[in-house]
Amino acid sequence: MAPASAILTWVFSFFLYALAVVHGRGGGGGAAVELWCVAKNNAADNALQPSLDWACGPGGANCGPIQKGGPCNDPSDLQRTASFAFNDYFLKHGLTEESCSFSNTAALTSLNPT
């Protein structure tokens, strides 16, 4: 049986990949661009936590998988946890830069965050 951390990594990666495919804009079927909304790597935990709380509360992100007992819960990695919530919110709110700000603690990336 695979270790729990490997399963969590796979679930997290699959969730981000499966839900964050954005098709190229403009006419004529441009190449697809994959975007993810992730916590900035230089964001302090004390700045991330209120943004995470907002995303999971009033923001309406589906944070069940990152809650205690959830398959993606990792209390030791606030950036990863916040990234999960931020990306879910981003997907539900138009896939725009405005839906990936979180008080300047998040950014869009085309690099797969796994």
UniProtKB/TrEMBL annotation:
Superkingdom of the source species: Eukaryota
Chain ranges of the X8 domain: 35-114
Keywords: Signal
Gene Ontology cellular component terms for the protein in this record: plasmodesma
Signal peptide range in chain numbering: 1-20
Protein name from the UniProt record: PLASMODESMATA CALLOSE-BINDING PROTEIN 5-like isoform X1
